[in-house]
Amino acid sequence: MRPSFINLRVAVAAFALIAVPAVAPPPELSPAQQLKLYDAAHAQQLTVSKSASAVTITHSKYSATAGIQSLANSGTNYDWAKLVLLEGGWPQSDNNVTVLLRWMRQENGANNWWNRDNPLNNSFGAPGAGGTGRNPNLIVAAEHAAQALKRGAGGGYGGIVSALAASASPAVTAQAIWASNWSGSHYANGTHWSTAPVPIVKAPASAW
Question: How many domains are there within the chain?
Answer without folding.
Answer: 1
